[in-house]
Amino acid sequence: MKRLATLVAAFGRQYEAELETGELLLCFPRAKKSVFACGDRVEIAITAPGQGVIDKLEERSSLLYREDAFKQKLIAANLTQLIIVVAVEPSFNPELLTRCLCAAEDQELKTLIVLNKCDLADRLDEARERLAPLTAIGYEVLELSARGDVDALARRLPGERSLLVGQSGMGKSTLTNALIPDAEARTREISAALDSGKHTTTFSRLYRLPEGGSLIDSPGLQMFGLAHLSRDALEHSFIDLRPFLGQCRFRDCRHEAEPGCLLREAAADGRIQASR
Question: What are phi and psi for residue 200, nearest 5 degrees?
């Protein structure tokens, strides 16, 4: 019997699927290579009580993934909003943050940067300074402490399918547990079903929100490859560069040393940030 479902957890080639009735199944793809991500809508053939096989992938509205020269890693599908978590301490990687923003812009997702651990006041100004190049071009930064009040972020979630991403150590798990009271218990339950504890921080998991919408938590990132973006797509993902694109003297300008490069001229006279 075929049933429609949403993949609500992804761990290797195993997935937890939620049927429209709310029933949860442990599922596997038929093919050796998996092309599915947390958040995907799929058609499932039930093979045994609590188990099924994924037969078909429904059309996606968006897909966030990273790719380098060696491999591709699907993160989440059918998103409307990307929430990037950084922290006052430890230091975050601005380039990784920018790469996440580029991927979100390519998929036309809403974006929000959360600066966590703002109770560490002695390092707060330094963190704000590192985010200043992004706030200057219009990206919103929401300051909070995951161990304190997270209501400001909770108000941004209803009606959206949001994905939390960030480096390890930014407090993303603490933030998820503050937003979703049963998140930790649900993670332990999945780990028990897989007969392994190692998955507690290494798989993506979708949580339904009482007010509508859903939140996906994902493993900590150390890199975010953008090899899947063409040069044109990558340029377009820098929102502050868009007004200048296509206006250089040469159509194939690489913005390095070519004469008549409008981007380099704009950086030199301060119309765009040289770092960007």
Answer: -60, -25
